[in-house]
């Protein structure tokens, strides 16, 4: 069959392809003129950013607002505006001439909603299908500038469609081919480029209002405006789609994801094939037209094999024509084992043959020699599912986009389990008959009958399987392509699956029953084929049943060792017997599950086998191999790496981490780093400044020409270098000058010191004289103090006092560095502290180290993860980050203490080392410059200044096992969790400890982790007892479940749409999208030990202020924020001189 189709046109859309507009579409007409506004009451609300709006304001000037617009003089040329704005193409526009018009309407007609859905789903092809329930259509037609004489007859035409459903709103913007004839408009005596984008407007804070987010889609370049009609983010030139609001949570405006444009219209031929040729074709106007679904010919002719035994239920075999199968016949190199032994598995031996060499698994292992697995151990398989599958007569496919597939196999009884996630109910029930998606997995690890081998034993774990399924009687066809990629470092088999074609529909709510069946496998060089006809029963929701069938043909291609004569003894035909088939679709969790028992044996059935090792009824441990004896006798033998009697097996002693134990062969820590990689393996690598293989590292001579100033001498040191100016020159060695010119601060200081008085200890400045202090580069220190009065204040770079920052004796203001010239950055002072690159990161703790994972958007850049701080023999629990000074703080319990270090490289500094028993959770108030921590032995919560001074206990009653603690500085709140097994709870108070109250106490188990998201105001926790992740708004009490089935969470943090948590059982950092409640990623560090605390190291501090952020809130000592002010508190050591306590408002 030849199908002629046309790809999409590459031309821009025309006005005729807009959503219908004008009087014929029953539009309303905005009053003509300049800066006209109409308030439109909505039948259904619009979601914009994190707000919900029951009315909008339509304006002449090319935008829709969420609040009544103020005078245009306040925003024209001064974007973004103070009010919420959806700018289709904002500028100073005019419709008073009667030619230009602005039409608008609400529309919930099927045609409008279908059009909107097509644009949205085309723009977000990897998201779930969206079906809007309401739309607002606004069209600016032939609008001119307010001063048209400057533009001649130039006019613009464009359209905005706001399409909404209950949980989201989208903006669809359409710019016609000739619709943008001017790109700027006059403003006063100049002109301003027109704007397109989305502005939230002003956001009210506790102290003042600030400009909210502004997502701009054009720039200040007029070419970016003209490009609106020439480019796209939706796959259709001139059409732009954005997700502009979601409920209940919102992170940011999301643009469409299809920026590529199709080629010009040209006919193409599709060769005859069964994967989908009935997909959508495009007309010139981009209207989707679906060809009718037609049957694709006669049924496949099925022939019985000649040796078919006379028994019920025997499978049928399709005659396979091998001419259309491209088999890459592979053989090992014609070398010998002497040069190729490394190509074999570590559990295999290499054997030379006259024509080459082959690898053979050792006793106790099975496989093809390239890949060998321990006999008896359960096996795991992980992979992804991709492709497009049409269901029934649906014109639109269901897309699979990296859906997770996980399989678990109990090898010693042939039982296999397969689960595929993110399966919507539009296709889930219809996939139930296809247990054969996992059938090849069952074949690969089937229980072997005497004299027969399963798939992995023959061909290993690298092969390609392609299956063609034809459903009867409708002749729907599906192709299943599966690539098995071998064993990974965890001994898991990796695979990928692609599904393409059409399947018959199974109604929602139906179940499917599959009886036992058999398949005959035919073996030849590098090719295995099988085929059969299968029946299945559909039990419909009303209880009635239908019996259906499909025909099945599959080929398995692989690479074998051609030199091994023993492989030629493999039976050319073997039969896979499958029973106890179980298929289930779990709609609530969007999971489809397959389970079955698999045996490989004689095609003619053979003699009945009673030995339990061959029936699977042996009772050996799942980590044991069953060894058959005489008759029905057998023994159970624990697999390699396990100890026990075979009935019960337990993991043998864990491999020693040679890096941690110090038994490695790496060079000394001053020259090399040892990185544990699991098992008994580790990697040695030389530190920066050294070269070698990690076991022997030699210093690099960094004193290359040009490294220092020409008037300086370079001195090479171990792993680093120093530069020193020659005699008569001054500077830091990187720059040297003949004479040292004094800075403004140095001149100021030295001029005052020149007026001296002489006392018993030599010259000194006059009593009461203020002398400025300069830093090492000669700049004014940000904080200046009077030596006699004790007053301190902040200064700018010129030494001028900043008003309102002066503090009294005993108190110091928080002065921000005013950007003095920093010293040149040389090597870090310690090889065990690594500076972080720019951007936002995750920091998490393990025994003896703090590691980081960079974030790209919300995705973990796992390949760039590395330790940032090594602290051998320390058990680090909590971690927190000060975004102001770029410092990481941590708690450790071996020698109980709290310490800190610069994330940009520097010495670890002990902050608190006394009166601690078990400090665990730690949190930072970056505004008030304080830290809070929990002590689970002393059962209290304390606060102190960031330098460890001014300690004060704020909570010391009714605590049993406090651990997680977090701050909400802008709102003055503190949150903590107590995992007391008898009465776990989550509590809150103001930062001074007042107004303490319980937030959650029911349905908790072990609430280990706690996080607060500043954007959504959500408090979230991870519970290792209930295995749930939950969230709530603390002020509302609207508790909701995010995810179930997590294993053993410990720490938790949030960033944007994602929650990240550490898991003790998985030894991993796990990412969860808290909007969808689904796991999105996992990172396992090289060192496989328990992970403890985790925090987000922000590239920039979160927005917000509190009363302690300026001049320490006027407090003499501790300033602790509250929602309406602050409390001034004294430290617990009452010896503090001049301390004044004040409670309440500011």
Give a verbal description of the structure.
By secondary structure, this protein is mostly beta strands. The protein has an 11-stranded mixed beta barrel. Strands 2, 7, 8, 9, 10, 11, 18 and 19 form an 8-stranded antiparallel β-sheet that branches. The chain starts with a strand and ends in a 17-residue tail after the last strand. The relative contact order is 0.06.
Work out the helix count.
Answer: 9
Q: How many beta-strand segments?
A: 80
In round numbers, the mean pLDDT is 81
Strand content: 35-45%
Strand order of the largest sheet: 27-28-29-39-38-35-36-37-31-32-33
Structural class: mainly beta
Please outline what is shown here.
The protein is mainly beta and 1146 residues long. 5% of the residues lie in helices and 43% in strands.
List the main descriptive attributes of the protein structure presented here.
single chain, 1146 residues, mainly beta, eight-stranded antiparallel β-sheet, 5% helix, globular
Secondary structure layout:
Blueprint (H helix, E strand, L loop, with lengths): L2 E4 L21 E2 L7 E12 L2 E9 L3 E3 L19 E6 L2 E2 L6 E7 L2 H14 L10 E12 L10 E10 L2 E8 L8 E4 L2 E4 L1 E5 L2 E3 L4 E3 L2 E3 L5 H5 L12 E8 L7 E2 L11 E4 L10 E2 L5 E2 L47 H4 L7 E6 L2 E6 L3 E3 L4 E3 L4 E13 L6 E13 L4 E7 L6 H4 L7 H6 L2 E2 L6 H5 L2 E11 L4 E11 L5 E11 L7 E3 L3 E8 L2 E13 L5 E14 L14 E14 L4 E11 L10 H4 L8 E5 L5 E5 L3 E3 L4 E3 L6 H4 L10 E7 L2 E6 L3 E3 L4 E3 L12 E6 L2 E6 L4 E2 L4 E2 L6 H10 L3 E3 L2 E3 L18 E3 L6 E3 L46 E16 L2 E2 L5 E17 L4 E6 L4 E6 L6 E4 L6 E7 L4 E6 L4 E6 L6 E4 L6 E7 L4 E6 L6 E6 L6 E4 L6 E7 L4 E6 ...
Parallel strand pairs: 27-33, 30-39
Antiparallel strand pairs: 1-20, 2-8, 3-4, 4-5, 5-6, 6-14, 7-9, 8-9, 9-10, 10-11, 11-18, 12-13, 14-17, 15-16, 18-19, 21-22, 23-24, 25-26, 27-28, 28-29, 29-39, 31-32, 31-37, 32-33, 34-36, 35-36, 35-38, 36-37, 38-39, 40-41, 42-43, 44-45, 46-47, 48-49, 50-51, 52-53, 54-55, 56-57, 56-58, 56-78, ...
Protein name: Nidogen 1a
Subcellular location: Secreted, Extracellular space, Extracellular matrix, Basement membrane
GO molecular function: calcium ion binding; Wnt receptor activity; Wnt-protein binding
């Amino acid at each position: 069959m030849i199908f002629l189709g046309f790809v999409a046109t590459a031309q821009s859309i025309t006005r005729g392809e807009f959503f219908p507009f004008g009087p014929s579409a029953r539009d309303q007409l905005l009053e003509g003129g300049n800066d006209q506004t109409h308030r439109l009451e909505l039948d259904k609300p619009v979601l914009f950013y994190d707000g919900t709006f029951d009315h909008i304001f339509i304006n002449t000037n090319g935008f829709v607002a969420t609040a009544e617009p103020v005078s245009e003089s306040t925003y024209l040329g001064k974007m973004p505006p103070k009010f919420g704005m959806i700018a289709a193409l904002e500028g100073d526009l005019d419709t008073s001439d009667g030619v230009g018009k602005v039409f608008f309407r609400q529309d919930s007609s099927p045609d409008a909603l279908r059009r909107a859905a097509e644009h949205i789903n085309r723009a977000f092809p990897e998201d779930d299908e969206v079906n809007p329930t309401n739309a607002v259509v606004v069209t600016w037609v032939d609008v001119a500038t307010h001063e048209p004489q400057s533009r001649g007859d130039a006019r613009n035409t464009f359209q905005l469609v706001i399409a909404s459903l209950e949980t989201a709103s989208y903006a669809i913007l359409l710019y016609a081919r000739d619709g943008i004839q001017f790109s700027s408009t006059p403003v006063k005596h100049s002109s301003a480029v027109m704007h397109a984008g989305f502005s939230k407007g002003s956001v009210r804070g506790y102290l003042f209002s600030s400009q909210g987010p502004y997502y701009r889609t054009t720039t200040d370049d007029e070419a970016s405006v003209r490009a609106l009609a020439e480019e796209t983010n939706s796959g259709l030139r001139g059409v732009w789609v954005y997700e502009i609001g979601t409920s209940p949570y919102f992170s940011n405006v999301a643009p469409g994801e299809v920026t590529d444009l199709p080629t010009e219209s040209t006919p193409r031929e599709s060769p005859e094939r069964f994967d989908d040729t009935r997909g959508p074709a495009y007309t010139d106007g981009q209207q989707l037209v679906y060809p009718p679904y037609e049957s694709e010919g006669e049924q496949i002719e099925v022939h019985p094999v000649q040796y078919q035994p006379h028994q019920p239920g025997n499978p049928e075999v399709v005659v396979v024509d091998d001419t259309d199968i491209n088999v890459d016949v592979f053989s090992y190199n014609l070398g010998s084992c002497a040069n190729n032994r490394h190509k074999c598995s570590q559990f295999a031996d290499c054997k030379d043959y006259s024509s080459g060499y082959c690898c053979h698994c050792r006793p106790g292992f099975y496989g093809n020699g390239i890949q060998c697995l321990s006999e008896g151990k359960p096996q795991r398989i992980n992979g992804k599912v991709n492709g497009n599958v049409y269901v029934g007569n649906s014109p639109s496919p269901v897309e699979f986009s990296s859906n997770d597939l996980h399989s678990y196999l109990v090898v010693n009884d042939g039982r296999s389990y397969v689960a595929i996630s993110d399966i919507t109910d539009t296709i889930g029930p219809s996939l139930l008959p296809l247990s054969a998606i996992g059938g090849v997995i069952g074949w690969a690890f089937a229980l072997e009958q005497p004299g027969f081998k399963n798939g992995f034993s023959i061909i290993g774990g690298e092969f390609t399987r392609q299956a063609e399924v034809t459903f009867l009687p409708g002749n729907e066809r599906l192709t299943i392509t599966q690539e098995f990629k071998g064993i990974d470092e965890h001994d898991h088999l990796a695979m990928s699956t692609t599904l393409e074609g059409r399947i018959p529909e199974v109604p929602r709510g139906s179940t499917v029953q599959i009886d036992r069946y058999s398949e005959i496998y035919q073996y030849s060089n590098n090719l295995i084929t099988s085929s059969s006809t299968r029946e299945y029963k559909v039990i419909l929701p009303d209880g009635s049943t239908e019996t259906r069938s499909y025909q099945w043909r599959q080929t398995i291609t692989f690479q074998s060792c051609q030199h091994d004569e023993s492989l030629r003894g493999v039976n050319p035909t073997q039969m896979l017997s499958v029973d106890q088939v179980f298929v289930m679709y779990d709609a609530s969790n969007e999971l489809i599950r397959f389970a079955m028992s698999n045996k490989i044996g004689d095609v003619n059935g053979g003699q009945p086998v009673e030995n339990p090792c061959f029936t699977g009824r042996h009772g050996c441990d799942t980590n044991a191999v069953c060894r058959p004896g005489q008759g029905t006798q057998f023994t159970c033998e624990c697999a390699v790496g396990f100890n026990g009697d075979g009935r019960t097996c337990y993991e043998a002693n864990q491999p020693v981490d040679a890096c941690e134990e110090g038994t490695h062969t790496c060079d000394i820590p001053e020259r090399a780093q040892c990185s544990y990689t699991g098992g008994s393996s580790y990697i040695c690598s030389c530190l920066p400044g050294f070269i070698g293989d990690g076991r022997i590292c030699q210093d690099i001579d960094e004193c290359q020409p040009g490294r220092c100033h020409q008037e300086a001498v370079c001195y090479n040191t171990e792993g680093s270098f120093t530069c020193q100016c020659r005699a008569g020159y001054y500077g830091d060695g990187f720059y040297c000058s003949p004479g040292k010119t004094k800075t403004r601060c140095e001149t100021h200081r030295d001029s005052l010191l020149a007026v001296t008085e002489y006392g018993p200890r030599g010259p000194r400045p006059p009593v009461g004289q203020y002398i400025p202090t300069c830093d090492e580069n000669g700049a004014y220190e940000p904080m200046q103090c009077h030596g006699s009065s004790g007053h301190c204040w902040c200064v700018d770079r010129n030494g001028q006092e900043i008003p309102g920052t002066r503090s009294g004796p005993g108190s110091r203001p928080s002065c921000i560095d005013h950007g003095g010239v920093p010293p040149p950055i040389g090597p870090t002072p310690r090889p065990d502290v690594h500076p972080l690159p720019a951007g936002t990161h995750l920091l998490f703790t393990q025994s003896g180290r703090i590691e980081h994972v960079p974030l790209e958007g919300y995705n973990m850049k796992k390949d760039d993860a590395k330790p940032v701080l090594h602290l051998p023999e320390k058990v680090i629990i909590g971690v927190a980050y000060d975004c102001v000074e770029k410092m990481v703080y941590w708690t450790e319990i071996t020698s109980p203490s709290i310490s800190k270090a610069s994330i940009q490289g520097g010495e670890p500094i002990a902050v608190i080392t006394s009166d601690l028993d078990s400090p665990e959770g730690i949190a930072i108030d970056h505004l008030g410059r304080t830290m809070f921590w929990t002590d689970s032995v002393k059962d209290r919560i304390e606060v102190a200044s960031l330098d460890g001074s001014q300690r004060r206990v704020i909570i010391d009653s009714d605590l049993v096992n406090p651990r997680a603690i977090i701050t909400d500085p802008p709102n003055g709140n503190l949150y903590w969790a107590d995992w007391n097994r008898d009465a776990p709870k989550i509590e809150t108070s103001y930062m001074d400890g007042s107004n303490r109250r319980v937030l959650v106490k029911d349905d908790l188990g072990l609430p280990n982790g706690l996080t607060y998201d500043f954007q959504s105001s959500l408090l979230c926790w991870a519970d290792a007892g209930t295995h749930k992740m939950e969230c709530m708004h603390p002020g509302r009490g609207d508790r909701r479940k995010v995810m179930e089935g997590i294993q053993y969470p410990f720490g938790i943090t949030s960033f944007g749409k994602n929650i990240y948590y550490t898991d003790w059982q998985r030894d991993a950092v796990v990412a969860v999208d808290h909007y969808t409640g689904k796991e999105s990623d996992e990172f396992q560090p090289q060192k496989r030990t328990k992970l403890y605390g985790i925090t987000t190291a922000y590239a920039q501090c979160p927005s917000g202020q509190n009363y302690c952020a300026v001049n320490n809130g006027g407090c003499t000592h501790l300033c602790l924020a509250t929602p309406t002010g602050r409390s001034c508190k004294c430290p617990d050591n009452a010896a503090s001189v001049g301390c004044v306590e004040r409670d309440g408002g500011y």
